[in-house]
Write a structure and sequence with these properties.
Keywords: Signal. The protein is an alpha+beta fold and 374 residues long. Helices cover 26% and strands 32% of the residues. A hairpin with a 2-residue loop joins β13 and β14.
């Protein structure tokens, strides 16, 4: 009898050790990614693995940390495409990065156009007034729906996004938590619909990390590290622009998103040579000209010269100092396309795509006008 009692005692002791050890070992399991140097563990790792892993969330780009998000404070971890929040008994939730990115870009989702009709094959969401159709609807239903993506907060729209050192232009749609991108060139593969790198973009903005240089700017900006410092996120990519040369300088216009500054269509950079400083310098002005306003002032320029028109002309006519500094225009206004990025050293870098040249607008108001470095 004593023998069986001793064996039972030993068995219970061993079982107790195993039971006690199991949760601790499970909690300690982690996956580390040399690509970014971060590890994932616990509830967030389980959520990451069960809901798509690398293709859906991307690599981790932060450690597990305590943050305050919309009046909630708790453990979060950032990934290339998402922010995962551990809400304890509620479970792991994805951050509302789609809405946040639109807000930061000056395009709050409430201001975006809504559909005038609803096709039969689409699903309408009265909560936001937007629809979901086609490939995006299929992907949404197949990959977690409302819990994973939230409601649609835009209609499909055409956007230009960075794709490494190139630009990609295509159809995207924003959701509370994500941005979907449609890639017809990958039709029939699992990558036909991709999720935007919103986690990377938002985390870069709030953590003061260096964002990637905008497409076409990498080699050029790396040649000026002391002047520029870190690239900031959310550059303007392939925005409509225009240029005009004057007798003693130039004007360069870069458009704004209509919802960002509805009272002005863009900004006008005035560039001229300052003899006192012995350098090109820049001044920045808002463009308040609107379609329907007078195109020109009806002035008669000297032979061979031109009166500037539209936004350039309005600024030139209404600011005598600019008019005297620049003189008359020597060529008509020319359409262009621009890539513009702010750098945390205080400079703006503008790539003029038609001429393959770069303006570096330094924080001391001097200008470098250089050929793009490839």
């Amino acid at each position: 009898m004593k023998r069986w009692t001793l064996m039972l005692t030993l068995l219970l002791a061993v079982t107790g050790v195993l039971v006690a050890a199991t949760p601790a070992n499970a909690a300690e399991r982690q996956r580390c990614f040399p690509e970014t140097g971060y590890c994932v563990s616990g509830a967030i790792l389980r959520y990451w693995e069960r809901n798509g892993g690398l293709p859906v969330f991307g690599y981790p780009i932060s450690e597990l940390r305590i943050e305050t998000v919309e009046n909630w404070t708790g453990p979060v971890q950032w990934f290339e495409r998402d922010r995962l929040e551990d809400h304890g008994s509620i479970g792991v939730l994805a951050g509302r990065l789609g809405a946040q990115v639109l807000d930061w870009q000056g395009r709050p989702w409430q201001s975006l156009p809504r559909p005038t009709s609803i096709p039969k094959e689409c699903q309408f969401f009265p909560e936001t007034g937007h629809t979901l159709c086609g490939k995006f609807l299929e992907y949404w239903r197949r990959n977690g729906g409302l819990m994973r993506f939230g409601y649609p907060i835009s209609e499909p729209m055409t956007e230009t996004l960075a794709n490494g050192d190139e630009l990609w232009t295509g159809t995207v749609q924003y959701f509370e938590r994500r941005r979907m991108e449609y890639h017809p060139e990958l039709a029939g593969t699992r990558y036909e619909v991709l999720l935007g790198l919103l986690g990377r973009d938002v985390y870069t903005a709030i953590s003061d990390r260096c964002a990637p240089p905008a497409p076409f700017l990498g080699p050029t900006t790396r040649a000026y590290p002391d002047i520029l410092g870190c690239p900031a996120p959310f550059p303007k990519l392939a925005f409509p622009a225009a240029s005009q040369r004057f007798e003693r300088g130039a004007m360069y216009w870069v458009s704004n998103p209509p919802s960002l500054t509805p009272w002005q269509s863009g900004n006008i950079w005035v560039v001229f040579y300052d003899t006192a400083r012995g350098s090109l310098v820049w001044q920045l002005y808002p463009d308040y000209w609107r379609e329907g306003e007078p195109v020109s002032g009806g002035m008669t320029p000297p032979p061979g010269l031109i009166e500037p028109i539209r936004g350039f002309g309005k600024l030139w006519r209404e600011n005598p100092t600019i008019r005297e500094t620049l003189g008359w225009a020597v060529e008509p206004e020319r359409a262009d396309t621009a890539v513009e990025q702010y750098f945390r050293g205080g400079a703006f870098v503008i790539y003029r795509m038609n001429s393959d040249r770069v303006y570096i607008m330094k924080p001391d108001n001097t200008v470098e006008d250089i050929q793009r470095i490839r």
